[in-house]
Specification:
two-stranded antiparallel ribbon; single chain; about 475 residues
């Protein structure tokens, strides 16, 4: 029996109406779409982590290696244990919270922050093993479950347009069309790449997203070779986070063998336990836990909806398995020296390419492992090129909203809030919170309190407490 047949049998490919080729292509698509994390995660965490005797360049490289290993381990568990096409890596937003709120804002030592990540992961493992996480997710109101996918779609599109330099921040309107679009080679190349990808997608070309990502990257490198990298930083749209020397290409960082010696990072969380201040530490664990829990839940349900995985009640069957992969990934990440590992919404790009089994995740994990040998191979794809996929998938995921009963206000209100709050707050968890808090309120107001479960009131109350703590200056 050949390798293809072995993979097909192991992942039960034929029963799920897919092929090995489709799964591999889906995995490649997901990897290319999320590979930016190999550059961005070290860029964020290296600002908060300071190891005596380790220079900035080596620290950045070590963090890139740790990012790759944690992503590969978590995604391997997702592939071989959960058998789902979801990929995992250190989460965006949570890494910024780690660096700028916990370490800089609260003055907590970075090793203690890693200890909090480790504790969060262990808690997740325990709660998942006893079925508590699955039970809580099943308490999500039906309109919230049905709306999560569309909310994530808008969120993805916003992230994509920002990376493509099509939108920029604005003091008056918060978000606006880039005022220097015609002067910005990234914006122009990105938009041409997006339109080309959408055209291929509309024609039903298989692998259109990969073709778009690679094609846009090639054009970007060609433009760089022609001298278009000399872009005046004063013309960069306000709020842009992309450095001027990597506008048209991937990371220019260089690595040597020292990057693979991660011993100063791995196990550093143990030192953090010696610096714990109980109340502050508990708040940090609580925040990591709360945001990661609902980010992951939202991603699994939203992407699962796009893949056709949800049952008639809007639940993801055997969700405890991908939740366990997430928990193990977070625990391993904290042990290695990175922030919380979570399921990536970019997994939607692979699902849209037809990925339906753990072979998609196995492909992503394999590509992460391969990139270890050629660090930073994964960083060779410019972020603006890979994020074209997010806009394409965002458009597709908007269709999930048709399942919502919009003529019933007790459904329309929580569903609408879930969809709108996600992109406007830049958080999947906050969008879910808006839907969960509003659902019992409108049900009660409509005289339909018999439809409510006590657990839904508890969830809504927990979110209210969370926001009170999070925005009152306590943290």
């Amino acid at each position: 029996m050949g390798l293809t047949e072995t993979l097909a049998d192991y992942f039960d490919i034929h029963r799920r109406d897919t092929t090995v080729r489709t799964e591999l292509l889906a995995g490649l698509t997901t990897f290319l779409t999320m590979s930016y994390i190999v550059v961005v995660n070290p860029a964020i965490l290296s600002q908060a982590i300071d190891i005596e005797g380790i220079g900035d360049g080596r620290l950045y490289a070590m963090l890139a290696v740790v990012t790759i290993i944690s992503a590969a381990v978590a995604t391997l568990v997702m592939a071989l244990y959960a058998d789902r096409p979801f990929a995992q890596a250190p989460g965006m937003g949570l890494n910024a919270f780690f660096a700028f709120t916990v370490v800089f804002g609260m003055g907590v030592h970075w090793t203690t922050a890693l200890a909090a990540v480790f504790v969060e992961g262990v808690l997740f493992i325990v709660l998942t093993a006893v079925g508590a996480r699955e039970y809580i997710i099943r308490l999500f109101p039906e309109p919230v479950k049905l709306a999560v996918g569309s909310g994530i779609g808008l969120f993805l599109a916003l992230i994509g347009f920002e990376s493509m330099r099509v939108v920029a921040s604005d003091a008056a309107t918060f978000v606006t069309f880039s005022p220097v679009f015609a002067k910005d080679p990234v914006a122009i190349i990105s938009m041409i790449g997006l339109l080309g990808t959408l055209a291929l997608y509309a024609r039903g070309v298989r692998g259109s997203i990969i073709i778009g990502i690679i094609g846009t990257s090639v054009v970007g490198y060609a433009a760089s070779a022609m001298g278009f990298t000399a872009f005046d930083p004063a013309n960069v749209p306000q709020g842009s986070a992309i450095a001027t020397d990597i506008y048209l290409t991937g990371s220019t960082a260089t690595y040597d063998l020292a990057a693979y010696d991660i011993r100063p990072l791995a196990g550093a969380f143990l030192d953090g336990f010696g610096r714990v201040e109980p109340f502050t530490f508990a708040l940090i664990v609580f925040t990591f836990f709360f945001v990661d829990f609902f980010d992951t839940a939202g991603t699994l349900v939203g992407v699962g909806q796009s893949a056709g995985f949800l049952d008639e009640d809007g639940n993801l069957p055997d969700i405890d398995k991908p939740l366990m992969a997430d928990a193990i990934g977070t625990t391993v990440g904290g042990m290695l020296g990175t922030s919380t590992v979570t399921t990536y919404i970019e997994s939607a790009s692979g699902v849209e390419e037809g990925g339906r089994t753990g072979l998609t995740a196995l492909t992503v994990a394999g590509l992460f492992i391969l990139s270890l040998a050629f660090v930073p191979l994964a960083a060779a794809i410019p972020m603006y090129a890979s994020h074209i996929a997010l806009v394409v998938i965002g458009i597709v995921m908007l269709g999930n909203a048709v399942a919502v009963a919009w003529d019933d206000l007790t459904y329309a209100i929580p569903a609408g809030l879930t969809i709108m709050v996600m992109p406007f707050t830049f958080s999947i968890a906050y969008g879910i919170a808006a839907g969960i808090i509003s659902y019992p309120v409108v049900k009660l107001a409509a005289g339909e309190s018999e439809d409510l479960h006590i657990g839904q009131w508890v969830l809504a109350g927990a979110f209210v407490v969370y926001f009170a703590v999070r925005t009152s200056g306590v943290m």
